[in-house]
Amino acid sequence: MKRKDFITLIWISLATSLFFFFVFTDEKNIEGFLFTILISSMYSFVLGIGNGLLNDFLNKKFPWSETTTKRAVISIVSILIINIILVYFCNYMNFVVFQKSATTEEYFSGKYNYANWFTINIALLISAFLHAKNFMEELKKTSKKEVVEQKLIAKSANAQFESLKNQLDPHFLFNSLNVLSSLIDENPNQAQKFTASMSKIYRYVLEQKDKELVTVEDEIEFAKTYCDLLKTRFEDSVDFVFDVKKEDYRLFVVPLSLQLLLENCIKHNFATSSKPLNIKIFSENGTLCIENNLQVREQIKESSGIGLANIVQRYSLLTKRNVFIEKSEDYFKVKLPVLESKPNVINIKTENNDMAYERAQKRVKEIKSFYGNLISYCIVIPFLVILNLITSPKSLWFYFPMLGWGIGVVAHGMSVFAMGKNWEEKKIREILEKQNKK
Where is the Signal transduction histidine kinase internal region domain (predicted)? Predict the structure, then answer.
């Protein structure tokens, strides 16, 4: 327990002692007042510290944020047991030890059952209020923590995606300039045409680099233009075949993925007129494939693998479907998943997350509503009990609102924690399954 909790218990002890001293004590003197403070402090500190230690223990073993339903059930049972024990102890100390109004045998014979029962009810109400207050505090902390975590995740994903996209410009430009540099020496006229075509291609790069996905049709058209540039340089040494199904044209792929894979084909394989490099782009089982015959070029420096790694990482941020790579002695193939929807990087699986968030938000409202009801019960009922005992102690009418409202609180708790929406969802699924079978 914290320091502020002890200060709160001191104020509760003082307020309770003043109330009982001026309302129920016949002889109002210093000794009577000090004795009332002693008794009130005993009840306040024994019950307060006992429930506080219980609450701290349950928070460590069964946190509200992780096991809400289990924690609620364990809290109810443990609160009931611990408060019965503490109340019997406090009443024993009060009536047997301090006031000496009864012996131990008389106390346990049932003479003080009514006093014990009444005190237990008051203790349970106050304890339930404190545990509900703790739940609301934990819920608030958890909500803030989750909001911060989600913001960090979103920022991290966004930064990662931006970093991956920024690799495209220098990578593409570097390779294009290498091609242009070769053409300037080999064929200046072709170099001029290449420069004009490269400007068109680079415009596409600039237009598409900020997009998460582009249509297969756009990517194929861009790839064909890029292949024309490669044919300009390599002529008969490279051959391109496009065999993509028309129905796949409206699906989506990662932008510039084909361009990066075409670059890899040229970079890692040699191509001559006697041994041309055959590159084929085609559809296969929900994927867009690029395949080339394997003619591995000897390289002094090991490849960094930026192009292929870039594609794999960008796909991992957008979908659970993987990029597949097949390699044999004769060919090398990369399979790119084609996607039916166009998600947003920041909100990965937005629809599912939104639905889950709405359900969680509704669940939190239900739990808050129950604890609001419980807190109101814990505040109003003790007030009615005290009012009844002061105004008409011989006619105990507080039982009716306490029992009636108590049954309502229990039913409310059952609907939130025991049955709730799970029961409704199960029933809905059962009815739908029966209708589908018909």
Answer: 159-237
Using DSSP, state whether 330 is helix, strand or coil: coil
Q: What residues contact residue 250 under an 8 Å CB cut-off, 6+ apart?
A: 215, 216, 217
Residue 63 covered by a domain: yes
35, 8 contact by CB (below 8 A): no
DSSP SS3 for 321 = coil
CA distance 348 to 156: 13
Split into its structural domains, the chain has a count of: 3
Lookup: tokens for 419: 């049955």
State the Cα–Cα distance between residues 29 and 16, nearest whole angstrom. Answer: 17
Contact present, 336 and 323 (Cβ < 8 Å): yes
pLDDT, tens digit, for every residue of 274-331? 899 999 999 998 899 999 999 888 764 555 556 677 788 778 877 888 899 999 888 9
Angle at 120 between CA 116 and CA 121, to 5 degrees: 120
434 in a domain, yes or no? yes
Domain extent at residue 12: 1-152
Q: Do both 15 and 141 map to the same domain?
A: yes
Region for 305 from its dihedrals, namely left if φ exceeds 0, alpha if ψ lies in -120 to 50, beta otherwise: left
Tokens of 46: 């024994």
Give the separation between CA 38 and CA 43, rounded to whole angstroms: 9
- Of 337, 368, 402, the residue at which a domain comes to its end is 337
